[in-house]
Design a protein that fits this description.
Low-confidence stretches: 6-26
Number of helices: 6
Number of strands: 6
Distance between the termini: 65 Å
Strand order of the largest sheet: 1-4-3-2-5-6
Order of helices and strands: HEHEHEHEHEEH
Helix content: 40-55%
CATH architecture: 3-Layer(aba) Sandwich
Shape: globular
CATH class: Alpha Beta
């Protein structure tokens, strides 16, 4: 009788979606990373007119990029409901499977639940187009798609947040 009562209670709790013990096999959602060319990335950004946009160019080998990445995630969390679109763009070699696995792991751990890309252009191409030697690099665009600020070598995340907040006033 007691066993039947426990089974009935367990069944009801299961139907209600209540777990009796935490599941340890549940994994964090996998973060998607799409390979795009510089031109394709530009098209996607232009398609976001009407939104404030922050584009962060980073790489797994860039320690300052990885150290500051949580601030990008926090910025997205704070302002996405107001109209911020956050985009991360890895500059790691898209043909290097190990590097791409590290990128996906890092983004998953960071809970980077926004658009994540890897540039499939060669470093010579993206260096020339972005006018940088390497990451970190971050762009802020206003709702009209106009570049408000470009950061290179050193990103001042406090200033980025002030700029983003000001674009919503």
């Amino acid at each position: 009788m007691r066993r039947m009562r426990f089974s009935a209670i367990a069944l009801i709790l299961t139907l209600l979606g209540v777990r009796l013990a935490p599941r340890h096999d549940a994994q964090a959602p996998t973060i998607r990373v799409d390979a795009v060319s510089y031109d394709e990335l530009g098209e996607r950004i232009r398609g976001l007119e009407g939104r404030v946009i922050v584009v962060d160019f980073w790489a797994d080998y860039c320690l300052p990029c990885k150290k500051e990445f949580p601030r990008l995630v926090a910025l997205n969390h704070k302002y996405s409901s107001l109209g911020l679109t956050t985009i991360s763009v890895s500059l790691d070699d898209p043909a290097d499977d190990e590097a791409q696995a590290r990128v996906r792991r890092f983004l998953t751990v960071q809970k980077a639940n926004f658009a994540n890309y890897v540039l499939k252009d060669t470093p010579e191409v993206w260096r020339a187009k972005l006018k940088i030697d390497g990451p970190p690099c971050l762009f802020v665009f206003d709702r009209r798609g106009q570049l408000v600020k470009k950061y290179h070598d050193r990103v001042d995340h406090d200033e980025v947040e002030r700029i983003v907040a000001g674009l919503f006033e």
